[in-house]
Specification:
The complex is a heterodimer. Chain A is an all-beta fold. Chain A contains one helix and 20 strands. By secondary structure, chain B is mainly beta. Classes of the chains: A mainly beta, B mainly beta. The interface between A and B is medium-sized, with 27 and 21 residues.
Chain lengths: ~300, ~110
């Protein structure tokens, strides 16, 4: 087949690998990015995992980024972006994530060829709900991205988390996903559960008051002040990129705004395979609130590419 | 072909006395249906009103609703011409004034 060299508008602001698996700008729907919810497979359609409440996270939606005093902010491209939202239910960081205190969006893909690298790129921004006066930056606890991957030998989840604030104190520091040397039960908040060590760092592994956790490692030289434009209703679109070495199951690097963080030599945690999901590629975005306030992660556009 | 999306805005969510569903952005859609499953309740009645607003913070009754729900089951209300935001507000009366609701919002361009 001959390929036509017509690039979709807007993709110039990305730097994708050889083959683009998806380019979603959310001006034509959610493109398969939906709420991440548990498996409702038990009698009465109850969820498979109850170590923490996985059923009440805030919903994902197509947003015009409309605010009380600014009106419609729109997106970097067109009017619409993908908005992840939390409910106003934050708890202290040393406790497990409270019901509804996060919002997560997932897209479900699968391997179609041997992969060398996989990369996520996005233009994003974040802000709290403008339901009270003040700047509000410290009410956004964290946001992040990870791939849920499974090959013939392991399930593994390379990811990054921007720890903006913990218990009201601004931190503004990057973490990457890697599990501490704990047991599966310790990972699961004291239960022998479905989640093996290293699976779902965004929810599991004990957390601590300083914003650290058993599921995360601080990125070397990872202090980073992103743009938070002085008010909850001024949003600046920023670039994010994560590059992963698939055959070696290692991090390569990630980029946020104009800074690139070298993660070569570091590996995510390798968990045993789960039944019937070999070849799975699930990219996931998430956002977390630090307090009794809804917070939002807006994704203007995202590209997943491979070589 | 017109865009369509269903969000499970509230899932088996317990409410006491009052109901306010999560503010949902609907700017791209022309029509909506709130499907409400009353999973469980210890009350005599539940009255739900559709609300619209300019910014997800300020809310006004739109005029439609589901009134005098008195038993678990499936209910719905249709809405059109609603602007950028939708939610349901409600009152749970009688008994322990508690109910567990699942709310699915079906949006179409």
């Amino acid at each position: 087949m001959k390929r036509a060299a017509a690039y979709p508008p807007g993709i110039e602001r990305f730097d994708p690998l050889d083959q683009v698996l998806c380019y979603d700008d959310f001006n034509d729907g959610q493109a398969g990015w939906l709420d991440l919810r548990p498996n409702f497979v038990l009698p009465e359609f109850r969820e498979h995992s109850r170590e923490i409440d996985l059923t009440h996270w805030g919903p994902t939606m197509i947003s015009s980024a409309t605010f009380p005093f600014m009106g419609t902010h729109g997106a970097m491209s067109g009017t619409y972006s993908l908005k992840l939202s939390t409910r106003p239910t934050g708890d202290r960081h040393e406790n497990p994530p409270a019901p509804g205190s996060m919002g997560l969006a997932i897209k479900r893909l699968a391997t179609h060829r041997p992969l060398n690298h996989i990369q996520m790129e996005a233009w994003f921004t974040y802000t709290p709900e403008q339901d009270r006066f003040g700047i509000g930056d410290a009410d956004v606890r964290a946001f992040g991205f990870f791939f849920d991957l499974q090959d013939a030998e392991h399930r593994w989840m390379p990811g990054i988390r921007y720890l903006n604030s913990a218990n009201g104190e601004l931190r503004k520091r990057w973490q990457y996903f890697r599990a501490a040397d704990v047991t599966d039960a310790e990972w699961n908040y004291g239960h022998e559960g479905w989640h093996r060590r290293g699976v779902d760092s965004q929810w599991f592994g004990r957390r601590y008051a300083d914003g650290s956790g058993d599921g995360f490692v601080w990125v070397p030289d990872g202090d980073h002040k992103l743009v938070f434009n002085e008010s909850a209703d001024k949003i600046n679109w920023m670039y994010l990129r994560l590059l992963v070495d698939v055959p070696n199951r290692k991090y390569v690097e990630f980029q946020a705004m104009d800074r690139t963080f070298d993660l070569r030599g570091n590996a995510p945690t390798l968990a045993p395979v789960y039944e019937s999901i070999t070849g799975l590629i699930n990219p996931v975005f998430f956002v977390e609130t630090d307090t009794d306030r809804r917070v939002f992660l807006f994704v203007d556009s995202v590209v997943i590419s491979v070589d | 072909m017109r865009n369509f999306y269903t969000s499970v805005v509230e899932f088996r969510q317990p409410f006491t006395r009052e109901v306010f569903t999560h503010p949902y952005e609907t700017g791209w859609a022309r029509e909506a249906i709130f499907f409400v499953t009353v999973e469980d309740c210890d009350c005599e009645t539940i009255d739900l009103s559709v609300q619209i607003g300019p910014d997800g913070i300020r809310w006004m009754n739109e005029g439609n609703g589901i009134e005098q729900i008195a038993a678990p089951g499936e209910y719905f209300v249709r809405v059109a011409h609603f602007g950028g935001w939708l939610r349901l507000a409600g009152v749970i009366s009688g008994g322990a004034e508690t109910a567990q609701l699942t709310v699915r919002l079906a949006l179409k361009e």
